[in-house]
Amino acid sequence: MTELDAEDAKLMTLARSARARTRAARGAAVRDTDGRTYVAADVALPSLSLSALQVAVAMAVSSGALGIEAAVVFGADGGDDGGIAAVRELAPDAAVFLADANGAPVTSPR
Fold first, then answer.
1. DSSP-assigned states of every residue in 48-90
2. What phi, psi does 18 have (nearest 5°)?
3. Would you say the pTM of this structure is higher than 0.70?
4. Using 50, 70 and 90 to split pLDDT, how confident is the model at 4?
5. Cα–Cα distances in angstroms (integers) from residue 102 to residues 5, 26, 92, 105, in the given order
6. 4, 108 in Cβ contact below 8 A?
7. Suppose 9 and one of 4, 13, 42, 70 were both cysteines; which one would form an S-S bond, judging by CB atoms 3.0 to 4.6 Å apart?
8. Does residue 72 contact residue 15 with C-beta atoms inside 8 Å?
9. How confident is the model at residue 1 (pLDDT cuts 50, 70, 90)?
10. What sign does the CA torsion over 26, 79, 57, 49 have?
11. Rounded to 10 degrees, what is the CA torsion of 97, 56, 84, 90?
12. C-alpha distances in angstroms, 99 versus 33, 48, 61?
């Protein structure tokens, strides 16, 4: 994974804090093409299960975002295929950064 620029590092911090605050397995943050950020954690209910990245993308779309510039998943030891697919649907070239539960980079998918 390449070095994060300041805006992507901010997303990493937000994703990490969402994970810590909720004690979820993963936290995620996305930045839309207008520069707005959306932060979420995994949702694990008996009737609904969504990854943190799926929730963050859904929040962006429901707020009117037309595209995603970048996304971060913190705690992505096993990846986040569903969330990554949602990002790619909106923005095939968006930067997606994954970090494991210790914050170590995981290979960024393309």
1. EEE-HHHHHHHHHHHTT---EEEEEEET-TT--HHHHHHHHHH
2. -65, -40
3. yes
4. confident
5. 20, 11, 28, 9
6. no
7. 4
8. yes
9. very low
10. negative
11. -110
12. 22, 24, 24
Looking at the DSSP bridge assignments, the partners of residue 99 are: 74, 105
In which residue are the tokens 């707005």 written?
36
pLDDT of 31 over the 70 cut: yes
What type of residue sits at position 108? S
Closest among 50, 49, 47, 60 to 87, alpha carbons compared: 60
> Quick check: 87 and 81 in contact, CB under 8 A?
no
d(CA 67, CA 54): 14
- What tokens were used for 16? 């990490």
Which backbone phi and psi does 13 adopt, to 5 degrees?
A: -65, -45
